[in-house]
Amino acid sequence: MATDMASFHDNRSFTLSLFRSLSLSLCISTAMVACTTASSDHKTPAKEPEIQQVVVSTVQSLQPSKRVTLPGELKPWNRVSMYAKVKGFVRDVSVDRGTVVRKGQVLARLDAPEVISELSQAQAQLQAQEATLVEQTTRARASKLTYTRLLQTAKMEGAVSANELDQAQARMQADSAMVAVARGTVQASRSNYQAKTELRQYLTITAPFDGIVIERNISPGALVGAGDSGKPLFVLEDSRTLRLTVAIPELFANQLPPNSSVSFTVNAMPDRRFNAKLARSAQSLVEANRSMMAEFDVPNAAHELKAGMYAEVQMPIERTAKTLFVPTTAVVNSSEKMFLIKVQDNRAQWVSVQKGNVLDSLVEVFGDVQPGMAIVKKASEEIRDGQEVKAVQK
């Protein structure tokens, strides 16, 4: 019986412990639910997203002038490669590389015996034809006098027969025709003689203008002649005035003011700056590189500059009328298109544009824009087309 009592007490203690544990767990669960409910009851409502603020600027109408740097090349005023007109041997050479020559000065002489022979033959033919003309002219004069006398005599009845008179007239007309033929032959012989004389003049090579011999490729005894596609006998150059040639890109082709002046430097004299004035332009673009060739005249009496030098040219560029400019940061070049963002009625609006000249912090734009239009100063693709924005002036 004692054992049963002890077992009864142990079961009771276990039941009480289990009851207390369940009660504690229930209280904790109830408290957590209450806390969660209270927290849910006092939670603040979600805020609406804020409207993005953007700094705006305005489109400006300007007509600025700027200077761009373009490469150029100095070329001689005149340059010629001289070849032989007739075939012959070089007899003597009077000049060498670097020789200063004057117009008409002899540079070299050629020997061509066949040319001299043909000239002599043409001269002889001319003299013979001239003698024939004199003979025919004399004969025609005599025939005319005979016919005139017979005509006077025929006024006396029976003095001259009609047949004799007709024969005299026919002889006069034939001799007159022979004179015309002789004159034509003389003219042809004279033209042939003049042509042969000009060929003989080609045996003497002379300078076509004042300049400097920059290349000599012959020596006495060399065989030269017409149709020779090799090196020229001489290369003559006049560099007292140089042509500064500049290829102006298509972007600036209509922005070169007439009578404009440029400054340039060359590598040989980096500390010197030279000036030149616009003389002429092609007024057409070269298809190969889409540029317009322009020339500036450079006085070079002292020969400080050399033909063939490259130059860095500072060129003035100016539009003929005012155009529109915006900050460079206002133009977005995305994969979709190039645009700026217009702000109207607190809404962002993408406007397609094209870029022009860049002037410091401004860039020229072309498109559906007007002066004074409000635009986002620092635009980006994050500001979407149609998005609501708040404009801020700074």
Describe this structure in words.
With 394 residues, the chain is of the alpha+beta class. 31% of the residues lie in helices and 39% in strands. It has four domains: 56-63 and 322-393, conserved putative lor/sdh protein from methanococcus maripaludis s2 fold, CATH 2.40.420.20; 84-107 and 206-232, no CATH class; 113-202; 237-318, Efflux pump adaptor protein, beta barrel domain (Elongation Factor Tu (Ef-tu), domain 3). It contains three helices and 21 strands. The strands form four sheets. The protein has a six-stranded antiparallel beta sheet, with no helix packed on it. Strand 16 (332-333) and strand 17 form a beta hairpin. The two termini are 101 Å apart.
Notable features of this structure?
394 residues; alpha+beta; conserved putative lor/sdh protein from methanococcus maripaludis s2 fold; 4 domains; six-stranded antiparallel sheet; six-stranded antiparallel beta barrel; 21 strands; 31% helix; 39% strand; disordered N terminus
